[in-house]
Batch of 2 targets.
Target 1
Amino acid sequence: MLPFPVLAPALPEIILVVGALCLVLLGAIQGDGARRAIQTLSVGLLIVVLGLVHLSGGKQGVGFEGAFIADGFAQLMKVFTLIASIATLLMSFQWLERERVERYEYSLLVLLATLGMMMMISANDLIALYIGLELQSLALYVVAAIHRDNSKATEAGLKYFVLGALSSGMLLYGASLIYGFAGTTSFSGIAAVVKGGAPLGVVIGLVFLLAGMAFKISAVPFHMWTPDVYEGAPTPVAAFFSAGPKMAAMAMFVRVVITAFPAIAPQWQQIVIFISIASMALGAFAAIGQTNIKRLLAYSSIANMGYALVGLAAGTPEGVQGVITYMAIYLVTTLGSFGCVLLMRRDGQAVETIGDLAGLSRTRPWLAFSLAAMMFSLAGIPPLAGFWAKFYVFGAAINAKLFALAIIGVVTSVVGAYYYLRIVKLMYFDEPKPAFDRGDASVNGVVIVCTIFVALLSIAPAALFNAAAAAARSLF
Amino acid sequence: MAALFFYLFSAVLIASAFMVVASRNPVHSVLYLILAFVNAAGLFVLLGAEFLAMILVVVYVGAVAVLFLFVTMMLDVDFAELRQGFQQYLPFGALIALVFAAELIVVVGAWAIDPSVLKVVQGGSTAIPSDVSNTQAIGRLLYTKYIYFFQAAGLVLLVAMIGAIVLTLRERSGVKRQNVAQQVARTKATAMEVKKAPFRAGV
C-alpha cells in the first residue's frame, strides 16, 4: 500500500475547495435568493484562506508526491493573489448589480479561479501546472462572458476562450515534448536531466511551454486577446483579469524557468529578453492612439509584463526579487486604476472613454488625485511606488550585464509616460465635463487603500523588498 | 476458443465499421458505430485490458455515440446532399489512400526498437504483479499517488459544468410547466364543474 498523501502543505487550498463546494451547494439549493449570502461568505472564505497562507510563514513543504510545493515564494505570491481576488470581489458586487448581471455564480467562479491560481503558484510538476492553469482559465472564460446578453462581452468571452484553448494546446504540446525527452514531469527531475546538457526535444518543448505561458501573462507576441477582452468584459472582471491571474501566471513562469531549467538559462533568457522587449515596445507605442480607458489599461498591462520580465531575464535572485516587487506594485496600481474606472459613471451609465475624464480635478478632486497618483506611478515617476518597481528590475538587469535591455526599458517607459501624463493633463487642465455619480463605498475604499499604498510606499519600502528578497531566495 | 472469439469480434467490427460509412441512413450509421465500439471492447477484453474495454463502453458507447445519435436525429442535416459527388471524388480519395498506405508500409517496414529502450522495458524496476487486475492497479495509483491530479481534474470538470449552466440556462417566461404538486392537490371540487343542461335545448 502506498502511504497516505501528504496534505498539510496544501491546507489553505483544501479549505478553499471545501468552502467553495459548500457555497456551490448553497447556491444550487437556494438559487439567486442566496446571492448576497454567497457574496459575503466568498469574501469571508478568501480572507480566512489569506490568513492561513500568511500564518504558514512560508514553511518549505512538499505534498502529494512532489506535485505540490509550499515555500516562501509560493506564500508571498499567494498572499498577493488572494488580496487581488478579495479586492476585485469587493469592487464587483454593486457594479454588477447596477448593470443587471448579478448572478451568484460569479463569486463561485472567482473562488474557483483563485483556487486555480494558487495551484499554479504551487505547481511543482508539469501536470499540476497544467491542471491549475486550466482550472483558472476555464473559470475566467466564463466570467468574461458572464454578461451574456451583451454582444461585446460574449465576443470577449469567445475570443478569450478560443485563443486560450490554442495557447493551452501549445503549452501541453511543449510539456509532452519535455516529458518525452526528460522522462519525468517533476520540476526537480527535469532539472536533474537538463543539468547534463539538455536534449534538443527539451529545448523545443521549453519554447512551446514559454509560448503558452506568455499568452497567460499577455506578453507580445501572444497579447492580441488582451485589449478586446478588457474592453468587452464587464469592468470589474477586467480588473480581476489584470490583477490576480497575471500574478499567478508570472509566479508560474518564474518557478518553471528557475527551478526546472536553471542549467539552460542562456536558452530561455533569449526568449524572455525578446518577449520582454517586444512587450515593452508594443505596450508603449500601441497605447498612444487609444481612446477607451480600458483598452489603454490593457496595453499598459502588456507593457508592464514586459518590465516585469526584465527582472526575470537577469535570472538571478536579485532579478526574481525585482519581478516579485514589480508584480506586487503593479497589482496595487492596476487595482487602483480599475477602481477609478469603475467610478466613472454618469447618470447611471458607465462611461469608458478617456475624454470623459476631462476636468475631473474640478468636479471630483480626490478621484482625480487618486487616478493621477496611479498614472504617475505607472509612468515610474519618483517618489511613487512605480518608481521603485522599475528601479529594482532595471537594477537587476544592469547587474546581470544586460545593458541593452535596461536601456530599451528606460526608453520605452519614457514613451509610455506620454499617455499616462496625457490623462493627468486631461483631468487637471481641460474644461470640465458633467460630474460623475457618487461611487460605491467598497470601490472608494479599495481606491483609497491603493492610493495610500502607491503614494506612501517610499516612506517604508523595506518591508516589501525584504519579503520579496526572502521569497526569491527560497527558489534558488 | 480465444481465437474463435477474436475472429468473431474482428469480423463484426470490420463489417460494422464498413456499414458506418456505407449505410444510407445516418441513424443506422451511428447504430453501427455503437456495434463497432462494443466489438472493439470485446477485443480489449481478449487482450486482458478489461479496464480499457469498460472505458470504451462507458465513454464511447454510453456518452459519445448517444450524443451522435441525438445530433443526427435532432439536426436536420441533408445527408443525401452531403453524399453527392462521392463517385466524382473517388479516384482522388483512392490516390490519397494509396500514398498513405505506402507511407505506412515504409515506416512500419523500417521499424526498429532501440535495444536500450527494450532493456528498460523488460528489466524495468517495476515488475508486473500477478495478483492484481489492471483495474485494481490503476485504481490504487489513481487514488494514492495521483490523487491530487484526479481531484483537481474533477474540479476542472465542475467549473466546466457551472460555466455551461451560467452561460446557457435561461428562465423563459410564457412557457407552460408541469407542476406536480399542483396537479396532485386538485380535488373533485376544483377539477370538476357540474352544469345543469336544460332538456332539449342544447348547451
Target 2
Amino acid sequence: MNLWRICKLELHQIFIKDRRRAIFLFGASLAYLLLFGLLYSTHVLKEVPLVIYDEDQTQFSRSLIQAFDDCEKFKIIGYVASEEEMENDLRQKNAYAAIHIPNNFNKNAKLLASSPVLLIADGSNILITNTVTTAAQEIIATFAKGTGVKLSEAAGQLPALARHKIDPVHFRLRVLNNPTQSYLYFFAIGLALAAFQQGVFLSAGASLLAYPNPSHLKRTNILIAEAGKLLPYWTLGTLAFLLTLFASVSLFSIPCKAAMTSFLLLSAAFIYAAIGISALIASLCNNELYFTRVSIAYTVPAFVLSGYTWPQQSMDTFSQFLSYTFPLSYFSSTIRELMLAGYSPSLYLNSFILLLMGTTFLGIAAFIFKRRLKLRFARNHHRTSTSNYPNNVMTQK
Amino acid sequence: MKLLDIIIDEMQSLFRGKCSIFLLLLGIPIAYSLVFGCAYSNGVIKYVPTVIYDQDQTVASRSLTQAYIDSERFNVIRQVTTQEEMEQALQDNNALVAITIPLKFSQSIKLGESSAVLVTTNSTNVMFANAVISANNEIGQTFSAAISQKLLESSNQLPAAALKAAVPVRMGVRIINNPTTSYTNFMLAGLGANGLQIGILLVAGTVLVKEYSNLARWHNTSSAAIIIGKLLPHWWSATAIFLFFIGVITIVFGVPFRSNIASVFFLGSAFTFIVTNISFFFSVIAKDEVSALQAPLLYIMPGLLFSGLSWPSIAMNQFAQIFSALLPLTYLADTLRELLLSGYSPILLKNILIMYSVGSIFCLASIFIFSRRRNPKTARQRGQ
C-alpha cells in the first residue's frame, strides 16, 4: 500500500468506521474549554464572606468598616458581638475572613498609640487567603495614611505637607499581559490543551493498535505505514487546535495577540510530539485497553508538572526533570504567552525540542512496531504451515 | 455462585498475576502523591527573578533595593542601567518583576514632592503575580513608614511618637489552618484523591462489561449478587488505599492530620463507595472495556477543578455550581482538606450521607441495567 491509500483508509476509519476518534480529536479540547470557560467566567475571586467584630463602635471604626464594605473583594455577611461568635462563623464556613477592631481603637489612634486591627483569614484555600490579605493590606494602608494625614493636620501641619510626610513614597503597580489577573485567561486555555493532548493520544493510539490486517502492510515500509496512519491525525489535530483557539477568542474573549504563524509552528510541533509519544506508548501496550489506562493516568501529572500553574522554577530537581520529559511543558505555557503577551522568547527553542521529541519517539515506536509486526507475520506463517501440514499428509495418504 | 464465592473470586482476580490489577489501583494515588508532593515541596513561591533599574543611585534608593534583596520572595538577578535593558529582561522572561526607582527619588522625598516607584510584573502566570503583589505591598508599606518616621523626626518629633504617627493603624494578620499558605497543604490531599478516583475508574470500569461475554458462568447467580460480590472487594481495597495515601502525605510530606481517624475513614469509604459504583454504572452501560474507560472521562477528569478545592464554590456561577454538585470529588476534596488542616468540617456528615445515598442509587441502577442486558429476551430486542 502506498502512503495516500493508507491515509485514505485512515480518514475513512476516523469519520466513518470509528467516529469515536473524530470525537476525541475535535471534541475533547472544545468540551474542556467550554466547561472551564464557564467555571472561570467570573474571572477573579470577589465577595469573600467577611464578619466584623467591632468592639470599638465609634465613628472611626465604622469608617474602617465602610472601607471594607466598599471593596468588591469582600462581602460583609454579619456583625458579631463576641470573639466566640466570630470564631464560630469561621469554623462553620459562614465566613472565610474576619476583622476584629479592638476596644479603644479610635482613642489609641488619636493618642498616637498605634492601634492594631486583626485580620483572621482561613488559610485552607490559598486563593481565598491571597485575595483577602492583599485586599485588606491595601484597605488598611490607605486608611492608616488617611488617619495619619488628619492627625498631622490636627497637630498644625499644612495639608499638603502632612500628606507628604505620612505618605512619602508611592508604589505604582503595572501588571503586564493579564492586568486584571483573570483566572479565565490564566487557566482555561491550558486545561483545554491538556484535554487536546488526551484527544490526540486516544485517537492516534486507537489507530495504531487497530491494524486492519497485518498482511495489508506486509509489503509496506514500516515508516510509510506509520506516516500514512499518523499524517491524518497531525493535519486534523492542527485543525482541531485552530478551532479551539477560535472558540476561546470568540466565546470567552481570551486575548490572542500573537501572529497565526507562531501558533501554527508550535501546534504542529506539539501535535507531532504528542503523536510520537502516543505511538511509543501504543507500541509498548498489547491492546487498546492498556493504552487507554496508561494515557488516562498520564494526563494529570503531565498537566500539573508542565509548569502551567506551579512554576518549574519552584519545583525540586526530580520534578523539574520529569517536567522536561513531557511535551505539554513546551506547549501550554508558551501558547498562553503567545495569546496574552503576543510573543514568547522560547517559541523557536520549544518548537525545535518538540520536533526532536516527536522524531525520537516515532523512531523508537517504528522500531518496536517493526519487531512486533515481524513476530506477527512469523506467527501467522507458522500457523498457516502447521494448519496445512495435516491436510498435505491426508492428501498423500 | 454464592455471594461469598464471588467476593473471594474477585479478591483473587484483583491480586492475580505478576502485574496485578491491585497495583494499578494502589499505584496511581501513591505515585500522584509522591510526584506532586515533591513538586510542591517548596511550599510557596519564592525567589521570583527580579531586575532593578535604579536611576537615582542614592542611599535611599539603595536601601529600597536592599529591602527587595532581603526578601525571600524576590531574587534580584541583576541591576540594569537602561529602560531598554529592563524591558528586554522582562520580554525574555529572564525576569518576571522589574523595579524602577526614578531619578531624583531621594531628592523628591526630602523636598516634599511625591516620589513614585514603579513595580512592573508579568502576570501571564497569576501565581507569580499574586506572590509579587502581596510581598511588594509589605515592602512598600514598611519602607514608606520608615521614611515617614524620619521625616516626622526631622520636624522635632521623638522617634517612637514619629513611628506611631506615621502608622497610626496597623494590621495584624492571623491565618488559621494553613498559616504558611503552603501549596502542599492546599493541594496534595485533593490531587491524591483525584489519583485514587482515576485508579478506581481504570480498575472497576472494566469489571462488569467483560462479564457480558461470559454470561454462562453466572447462570444461577442473581445480578444483585454479582454486582455486590464484585463491588465489595473493590470498595474495601480502595478504602484501604485511601487510608494508605493519607498516611503517605502526612508522614512523607508533613501535611497536618488534625482530625480523628474515624471521620477520615468514613469520608474516604463513602467516596470510594460512590466512585466504585459510578465506575460500575459506566461498566454496565458500555459496549466494551475500552468504552467503559473512555465514556466517563468528561465526567470524572474535570472533577478536581470543579470540586471547589482550588476555585472556591463562592466564585462559581450557577452552571458551575450545578455541574460541581454532580461530581463525587466535590463531596470529598474540600472536606478532607478541612479535616486534615483544621480537624473539623461542618459538612462532613452531610457529604458522607450524600455519597452513600447517591452511590446506592448508582448500585441499584447498575443491578437493573445488568439484569436487563444479561436477559436473553431484552438482549435480543437490543440486537445483541
